[in-house]
Amino acid sequence: MRNVYNFSAGPAVLPKSVLQEAADEMLDYKGSGMSVMEISHRSFLFQSIIDETEQDLRILMNIPDDYVVLFLQGGTSLQFSMIPMNFMRNGKADYILTGYWAKKAYEEAKRYGKINIAASSEGDNFSYIPDCSDLEIDQDSDYVYMCENNTIYGTKFHCCPNSHGKVLVNDISSSFLSEPMNVSDYGMLFGGVQKNLAPAGLVIAIMHKDLISDTVLSNTPTMLQYKIHADKKSLYNTPPTYNIYMVGKVIKWIQSLGGLEKMKGLNERKAAVLYDYLDSSSLFYGLANAGSRSLMNVTFRTKSDAVDAEFIKQAEKHGIVSIKGHRAIGGMRASLYNAMPIEGVQHLVDFMREFENSGDYYAK
Fold it and tell me: What DSSP designation does 273 have?
């Protein structure tokens, strides 16, 4: 029995049944006498793991055959460099700034070419998703970049930006496999797995095969070229083998629940429990504009830093951990990833209500 509800933004909660299954196989994977951690990435056993994981992901997301799936290292932050290195043919790109990570990607891309800000909500502390229905895109732009779900600020795109025919690149790290999406709307999707899929250390990139080319920026290191990894089917060097194994387990768990439509419904119900309380509370209030709210990361606070700190302290005593907001925004943040049960969200809301009704803290 787990005695805490982990609301961490990442590394984050994983399904209990998946962790138990992995524990059962820890010392002996399928009669091999070895842990997956010990199996060679060149072995038949691991080849079957990575092949099955990719195939299950393709089925779950309905990934078209003309898209390539890559299992990469370096975290999402390395993609901030790899994307312009591999995709900048005209030396121009457009970025939509909706939060901390989108801005970091933008700052990194400026090292490699001329970057235009197509839209931004920075002037209002990234509290909303700007209108992206008619973006001013440079006609020579190589791609348009977005971050679908903004972990720190608790906002999310609820419709696809109009990139005017330009390749749309989407960082889906904190919304990965939380709901269905049309892969064909994007030239590239990528995300770190440490929020919804597996332990930290792996990035999954899904991109149209036409984007993969020998034509990259000069002096791009071999390890940072997508074509190298695509040609070697993600086995150019030793990949994060255990992470890929865990991704496969989580995908099968999602399939067992009914797939991404079912997962979206579960996530909507969880988020509604918390948002409904926030909308009725006299003490707590949400930080994201209602029309831009995320299902995965709910940001909120009181009007006092001292009360926020006391709430976080008392919450931990009630088995509610990792609820503190990011330093860029303060307050609290509850990450409601796929593996967070609705009971955990209800437990949080029950304590919030108890804390508010007691009056012991906010009255001071």
Answer: H
The number of helices, as runs of H, and strands, as runs of E, in the chain is: 9, 14
Bigger pLDDT: 214 vs 180? 180
Catalytic residue among 166, 171, 253, 270: 171
Strands (E), 222-344: 285-286, 297-301, 320-321, 332-335
Q: By the 8 A CB rule, do 152 and 329 touch?
A: yes
Q: What percent of the chain has pLDDT over 90?
A: 96
Catalytic residue among 156, 195, 270, 324: 195
101 carries an active-site annotation = yes
Up-side HSE of residue 70: CA atoms within 13 Å toward CB?
30
pLDDT in tens, 299-338: 999 999 999 999 999 999 999 999 999 998 999 999 999 9
Residue 355: predicted pLDDT: 96
Angle at 289 between CA 115 and CA 306, to 5 degrees: 105
Residues making up the chain, counted from first to last? 364
Active-site residue, from 94, 101, 249, 308: 101
Whole-number Å distance between alpha carbons of 159 and 172 = 14
227 as an active site residue: the answer is no
- Report the alpha-carbon distance of residue 72 to residue 181 in Å, rounded: 21
Determine the Cα angle at 279 with ends 277 and 285, to 5°: 95
pLDDT on residue 1: 58
Burial 189-200 (b: 16+ CB within 10 A, else e): bbbbbbbbbbbe
What is the residue whose two structure tokens read 């000069």? 218
- Is 166 known to be catalytic? no
Q: What's the token pair of residue 313? A: 């302290």
Check if the beta carbon of residue 286 is closer than 8 Å to that of residue 279.
Answer: yes
CA distance 114 to 88: 10
pLDDT of residue 169: 98
Residue 327, phi then psi, degrees to nearest 5: -60, -25
